[in-house]
Amino acid sequence: MKKSTIWMLTIVMALTFAGLLYVQVMYMEEMIKMREQHFSEGAKRSLYALSTALEQNETKKFLEEDMMVIEPEIFDSSQPQLQGIESYDFNNFRNNGLDDKISSYQKALKEQYLYQKGLLNEVILTILNQSSNRPITERADSATVKSYLKTELENNGIVIPFEYAIIDRNGNIVYKSSSYNENTNKKTIFTQALFSNDPDSRRHYINVYFPDKNKYIFSSIKFMIPAFAFTLILLIIFLWTIILAFRQKKLSEMKNDFINNMTHEFKTPISTISLAAQMLNDDSVRKSPTMMQHISTVINDETKRLRFQVEKVLQMSMFDRQKATLKLQEVDANNVIANIVNTFKLKVEKYGGRINATLDAEDPIVNVDEMHFTNVIFNLLDNAVKYRRDDCPLELNVATRNLPNNRIEITIQDNGIGMKKDDLKKIFEKFYRVSTGNRHDVKGFGLGLAYVHKMITELKGDIRAESEINKGSKFIITLPINN
């Protein structure tokens, strides 16, 4: 699949998932707003109904008390306006004119109504003048307020715990519920005036808040949370799949380069060995000891070269394993590195360079696989030769020293072409090869440093690189030591 196709699919799917998440988030926000509005309206209706119920209770109480006094007067037959009504009987209606009697009866009823209205007005004036003088604890006791408030809230579908307090016009608490918190956010408190007809100076209010309001509101969108979570998981899986697709594509390209490189690397020594074998069939060559020695040297060198390339390929198989199989043993790092330097010195001097070893570690015993440890140091030295500069002699410095916490540091520094910062981040990746511009004599599979990193990690060590263009590179290895 082309990279452009992958990018197009990535963009389309990313936009689709982003749109889906946006719609879900907007829907959840609207649901929360509607739920909060519905909750607020229900709470306000409940408080208004509470205030109305308290006013009705107080009015009823006054009426009952005053009617006990008024009622005997209303039905006292000695009242002048009522005597006429009781003195009428059927015979009077029969003996006198019907129209006159009806008119007199209506007049009597009207007078009775006006009298009773006056009495009721007196009761209402008494309620208005005297009720506000009573203590609020008598007019609205805590048990009644709590009972009425709970009932009204349930009638409006709000069945959650609440806390309340009765306050005066100055905000002072008259009484409150046991868990009422005075430091509650004012925005979450619902307030309603009690007995709205009271004068401002004697007016009281009720404050109510709901500790579990947020849980109550969000409970209505709980069914959306799994859908949102699943969508988010799908988005993460999709992004991870795209990342893997790009990695696999990059890996595929690197493997193709590796195969092409490997074919070229194998062809050269095989062709050379084949040519040398053909020369051995020539009688004149067999009779010349010098030629025989030369051909033998060529075959030996090319065989070593071929074996080295085969080892490189075999190293690649290690990267597919979870853990490398190592034969650990205690070795003297100074001695192993000194032997490698002595062996490698001829190759460095071949290019007009020199190699210096400063092995100052006083405690150099490490627990490693000697073969792999040797290959690690050899790979780093070989890279220094490959990426040398043409304008100055190669200078290689190898050093060891002890670090705190029972560790040893091994440094390999050169004065080669160096690397860019971007390359430093990738040099330990499998199949990655640093670009060398127009240089065509640098060959390899991009496995050397990846192998080095894997081996040092398996040995519970650490490796890092420092480099600067045209000033060289420095590789720093730290390993635990055995006391």
UniProtKB/TrEMBL annotation:
CDD domains in the cross-refs: HATPase (cd00075), HisKA (cd00082)
Any Pfam family matching the protein: HisKA
Enzymatic reactions: ATP + protein L-histidine = ADP + protein N-phospho-L-histidine
Domain Histidine kinase: 261-483
Keyword annotations: Kinase, Membrane, Phosphoprotein, Transferase, Transmembrane, Transmembrane helix
GO MF annotation, one: protein kinase activator activity
InterPro entries, per database record: BphY/WalK/GraS-like, HATPase_C_sf, HATPase_dom, His_kinase_dom, HisK_dim/P_dom, HisK_dim/P_sf, Sig_transdc_His_kin-like_C
SUPFAM superfamilies hit by this protein: ATPase domain of HSP90 chaperone/DNA topoisomerase II/histidine kinase, Homodimeric domain of signal transducing histidine kinase
EC number assigned by the record: 2.7.13.3
Single Gene Ontology BP annotation: osmosensory signaling via phosphorelay pathway
Signal sequence residues: none
Segments crossing the lipid bilayer: 6-27, 223-246
Protein origin, superkingdom: Bacteria
Protein name: histidine kinase
